[in-house]
Amino acid sequence: MSQSPIAIIDPAALVGMARIGTDEAGKGDYFGDLVVAGVYLDADAEPLARELGVKDSKKLSDPQVRAIAGQVMAAFPHEIVRISPSTYNDLYEKMRNLNRLLAWAHARVIENLLQRTGAELVVSDQFGNADVLEKALLHQGRQVRLVQITQGERDLAVAAASIVARAVFLQRLEALSREVEMKLPKGATHVIGVGKQLFAQGGMPLLRKVAKLHFKTTQDITTGR
Fold first, then answer.
1. Which of 60, 79, 136, 224: CA 20 to 30 A from 167?
2. Is residue 51 packed enough to be buried (19+ CB in 10 Å), middle (13-18) or exposed (0-12)?
3. Of 144, 161, 176, which residue constitutes the final position of a domain?
4. Which residues contact 67 (CB under 8 A, 6 or more apart)?
5. Residue 1 covered by a domain
6. Whether 65 and 110 share a structural domain
7. Mean pLDDT across 201-217
8. Does 167 map to a domain?
9. Same domain flag for 26 and 125
């Protein structure tokens, strides 16, 4: 079994350590996919990551995210798990818990990268009970040291993963917008108007295709409030 996940107050302690960083995008967005990404960095890779401008994706514009993500994916081992809204809704109905769903997706990214890199350290942003992620890992994942930290993007590997995840989320949101011929907004506010239009056009089946239905927003959209 891995060591118990611990919180590190100063992510500077991780600098120079070979590690996988994971993060997600789309968790708080009503429309669009949930995307989890992982990026492997070691001491030799860190200077290049900094040179590319890797930082918390929330501090970057969408064009910056797209540009840096392309460079990160070309330069470093990475993995992506993309869960479409329809699949997300199916999984949520089975799991009935967002943290379990997140842990499942993070664990798949971690397992895939472990096979490619042989990393012995995994760093992720903290969500829910730390045991949830550890339990979601398969045999190989349970042999590594798993660290969860608050504001995980302070670590360079997690920041790189956050950029990749965000870029894929944006790409998929645009693709879904084209499919329904309507611009789907980011976030969870200012979405009700578009949601009502989609619901009027195709009912719950169409909404299920593009939105995360467990959000309270769905009730506001479908009840006509």
1. 136
2. exposed
3. 176
4. none
5. no
6. yes
7. 95
8. yes
9. yes
- Cβ–Cβ under 8 Å, residues 56 and 162: yes
Q: pTM for the complete prediction?
A: 0.90
Place of tokens 């506001």: 220
Spatial distance between the Cα atoms of 211 and 218, rounded to a whole number of angstroms? 9
Query: According to the model, what pLDDT value does residue 129 have?
Result: 58
Q: Domain count for the chain, please give it.
A: 2
- As a whole number, mean pLDDT of residues 157-166 equals 96
**Structural domain includes residue 160:** yes
pLDDT one-digit tens code per residue, 81-119: 999 999 999 999 998 888 889 988 998 999 899 888 988
Task: Give the C-alpha separation, 59 to 136, whole Å.
Answer: 30
Domain of 60: which CATH number?
3.30.420.10
